[in-house]
Amino acid sequence: MREEYFNWLYSLVCPKGYPGSSYFFLLKALHRKEFYSLVPNDDNRGEDGKALRYQFEYSEIPWFKGPCTMLEMLVALSDRLGQQFVDTQFDRPAHMWFWEMMENLGLKDFTDEQFVRSNGESIVDNILDTLLERTYDFHGNGGIFPLNCTDVDQRNVEIWYQMARYSLEKMNEINV
How far is CA 54 from the centre of its chain? Predict the structure, then answer.
């Protein structure tokens, strides 16, 4: 059943033909890593991730009671990000936002081939530790939502507000 759930999550971010390569190993690594929060209210992103379990067919299985995984959190967050852009010029499916976040984290290049060739497990784990431990830079580079301009240290900002600021910055790109 766990494998079916993982395959379902995989299908949400890798629908047929997208993104064009296999990311099985990367997504498995994301699914093995537990999401935790250091900033107040980031635990809500974990709850969003766990809520995906209730969209899945067999939600009453005991292992569903465990902590949120990074994959679950990021899948749920990509859906939330997509909702920010409904009926705008940036309106696109959630899976495309997921891959933008993967690119922002420096993970999009980890196709299965690259993952195996470059000791991906260790590299991905380090990138996720940087995200979780908030050791990325002031502007959020190394995190999910890097900003071009900010006067607030993104390491201290909850993910929801990082996403909101990222959305605003993206919307303003078109107006510049």
Answer: 19
Measured distance CA(48)–CA(40) in Å, rounded: 15
- What is each CA distance from 168 to 90, 91, 107, 135, 173, in whole angstroms? 11, 14, 24, 24, 9
In the structure encoding, which two tokens stand for residue 52, read together? 């995906």
Matching residue, tokens 């996403």: 163
Q: Tell me the residue type at 5.
A: Y
Give CA–CA dist 165/88, Å, rounded. Answer: 16
pLDDT 10s digits, 50-101: 999 888 865 556 567 789 999 999 999 999 988 877 777 777 889 999 999 9
What residue spans define the domains of the chain? 2-173
Convert the pLDDT of each residue in 98-120 to its tens digit: 999 999 999 999 999 999 999 99
Question: Are the C-beta atoms of residues 29 and 112 closer than 8 Å to each other?
Answer: no
